[in-house]
């Protein structure tokens, strides 16, 4: 296992290098850049030589006067010392801009992930063990509805329901009086009042999907010979299901969890935009639209790194959960 982990880490280095090259150059394929729009804005506002001198100073400041390959090397070399460049739009360090939104992103995404697995696994087990009964048919119908409803549409519906039920708009994570205020018990309570909507919206699609996966896999495992052998030996039904069948059927969910690790930091971008949430997902979309190359490139690299780490952790988790899996 140790040699397998080391080999995967070594293979991950060229993978990240290739992703960094592709993402950095693709972001800059469209003609023009952020400063080209800045030049047009300054010329429209001032139209004098001082504005052009200011633009030239910005171009030197961000290194846009150097060749593309040189900017890429400097950007990648800064990763080792924690320097990811400077955001064009925010005129601040990239790590500072991301760090401001990281806490809320992890809170929403991790909370929805825990909620998803806590609900999906028991419901999937119950649905599989009560196949073709009215409860199984009801859960199947609910899961199909949950998988088919777009997250942003559900977010809009819950916002309308919250406004009609509580009389206050639950957009964002804080009310106006607590926005930007120092942390207090009142601000924490206000956060909890706003937090339930994004948790439900982000988690409901994943819950429906994982419930269907768990049900299908468990039905396959329950028909295997070793389960019938366990029953024939007098093993109680709930022991055969929980100790033997679920342990095998849960493997795809472990793999899915590894793929879900980047979602902890994306924060469901479209849902976050609709709900006005301060997460990393909308930040990535805005940086791509504005060609903020260092900010968008750093977020893409962060997602890629999390995907590699998630896959590695999923493989290790599979080896621990299923004794049949061995890595040579």
How do the strands and helices of this protein lay out in sequence?
Blueprint: H1 2-27, H2 34-45, H3 49-61, H4 68-77, H5 94-129, H6 134-148, H7 151-166, H8 185-222, H9 225-232, H10 237-249, H11 251-260, H12 263-266, H13 269-275, H14 280-289, H15 293-321
Could you explain how this protein is built, in words?
- There is one protein chain.
- The protein has helices at residues 2-27, 34-45, 49-61, 68-77, 94-129, 134-148, 151-166, 185-222, 225-232, 237-249, 251-260, 263-266, 269-275, 280-289, 293-321.
- With 328 residues, it is an all-alpha fold.
- The protein folds into 2 domains: 2-81, no CATH class; 98-321, MetI-like fold (Orthogonal Bundle), CATH 1.10.3720.
- Helix 1 packs antiparallel against helix 15 (293-321) and helix 5 (94-129) packs across helix 8 (185-222).
Q: How many structural domains are formed by the residues?
A: 2
Number of strand elements: 0
Low-confidence runs (pLDDT<50, min 5 residues)? none
Q: Which percent range describes the beta-strand content?
A: under 5%
Shape: globular
* Average pLDDT over all residues: 78
CATH superfamily of the largest domain: MetI-like
Q: Summarize this, please?
A:
This protein has helices at 2-27, 34-45, 49-61, 68-77, 94-129, 134-148, 151-166, 185-222, 225-232, 237-249, 251-260, 263-266, 269-275, 280-289, 293-321.
């Amino acid at each position: 296992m140790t040699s397998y982990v080391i080999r995967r880490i070594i293979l991950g280095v060229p993978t990240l290098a290739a992703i960094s090259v592709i993402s950095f150059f693709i972001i800059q394929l469209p003609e023009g850049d952020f400063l080209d729009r800045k030049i047009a804005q300054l010329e429209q506002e001032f139209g004098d030589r001082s504005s052009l001198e200011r633009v030239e100073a910005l171009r030197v400041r961000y290194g846009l006067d150097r060749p593309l390959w040189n900017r890429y090397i400097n950007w990648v070399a800064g990763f080792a010392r924690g320097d990811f460049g400077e955001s064009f739009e925010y005129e601040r360090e990239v790590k500072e801009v991301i760090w401001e939104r990281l806490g809320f992103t992890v809170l929403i995404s991790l909370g929805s992930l825990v909620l998803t697995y806590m609900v999906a696994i028991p419901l999937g087990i119950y649905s599989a063990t009560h196949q073709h009964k009215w409860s199984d048919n009801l859960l199947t119908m609910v899961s199909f509805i949950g998988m088919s409803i777009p997250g942003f549409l559900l977010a809009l519906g819950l916002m309308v329901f919250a406004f009609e039920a509580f009389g206050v708009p639950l957009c964002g994570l804080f009310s106006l009086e607590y926005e930007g205020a120092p942390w207090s018990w009142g601000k924490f309570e206000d956060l909890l009042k706003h937090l339930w909507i994004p948790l439900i919206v982000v988690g409901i699609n994943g819950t429906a999907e994982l419930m269907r996966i768990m049900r299908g896999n468990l039905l396959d495992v329950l028909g295997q010979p070793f389960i019938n052998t366990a029953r024939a030996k007098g093993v109680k039904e709930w022991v055969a299901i929980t100790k033997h069948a679920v342990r095998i059927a849960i493997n795809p969910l472990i793999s899915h969890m590894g793929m879900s690790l980047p979602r902890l930091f994306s924060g469901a971008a479209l849902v976050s935009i609709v709900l006005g949430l301060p997460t990393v997902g909308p930040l990535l979309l805005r940086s791509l639209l504005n060609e903020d190359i260092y900010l968008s490139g750093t977020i893409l690299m962060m997602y890629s790194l999390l995907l590699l780490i998630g896959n590695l952790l999923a493989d290790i988790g599979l080896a621990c959960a299923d004794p049949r899996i061995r890595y040579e």
